[in-house]
Amino acid sequence: MSSGRLSANAVAVAAGVDSNWVYRAVENGVLPEQHFEADVIVIKVYRLIANFVWPDRPRQRSKKHHIDTWQLSALHAARDAVTDPKTTPETTLWIMQDSVRVAHTRSERAALESVEADGHHPSLLDAQVALRLPIGRWIDELPSLLARIPKREPRRKAATRSSRPQNRSAA
Fold first, then answer.
1. Which of 26, 93, 107, 163 is 20 to 30 A (C-alpha) from 34?
2. Number of Cβ within a 10 Å radius of residue 115
3. How far apart are CA 171 and CA 169, in angstroms?
4. At what angle do helices 135-147 and 69-83 cross, to 10 degrees?
């Protein structure tokens, strides 16, 4: 992937979200002012987790909330996965209340989802709520999504009065 800068609108279009999500993410410190390709994946994850409430941690919707540690961890993991050479279309981001895991292969996913080989220890995911996000597929689709974003031509400045040729006739 190239490291070209993107507009807030381009990030939103590529992520399939309204541009207000990008501006909100900048306002909350989730995205920097200058946007890059990894921000498309970050904003997709942010859109999903921004309003997520864990079943045992109710919160008031009318109150403004700061980004929680679990959300920051998930967003950093998503950003890191974009440039991680181990990332494949099978890469999955698991988000739990107290941790975040990235599994790059089916065997890594199976290790997270399955009980220990001895059968006496539960899997990491047993008895807890977990979000499973297919970030590898999203990252794999990113170049084609970015290629479809129309490139805008620079705006032409309107001619000002001082730059227009003046027709002066002798009186």
1. 93
2. 12
3. 6
4. 60
Q: Of 95, 97, 66, 96, whose CA–CA distance to 81 is shortest?
A: 95
The phi and psi torsions of 133 (rounded to 5 degrees) equal -115, 130
φ, ψ (nearest 5 deg) of residue 120:
-95, -20
Edge-to-edge order in the sheet of strand 92-96: 100-103, 92-96, 130-133
Q: Are 7 and 35 in contact (CB under 8 A)?
A: yes
Beta strands in the chain (DSSP E): 92-96, 100-103, 130-133
83-101 pLDDT, tens digit per residue, is: 999 999 999 999 999 899 9
In total, the chain counts a number of residues equal to: 171
Nearest-angstrom CA–CA distance, 43 and 54: 20
Separation CA 123–CA 103 (nearest Å): 14
d(C-alpha 38, C-alpha 3), whole Å: 9
Q: For the whole model, what pTM was predicted?
A: 0.79
User: Are 101 and 53 spatial neighbours (Cβ–Cβ below 8 Å)?
Assistant: no
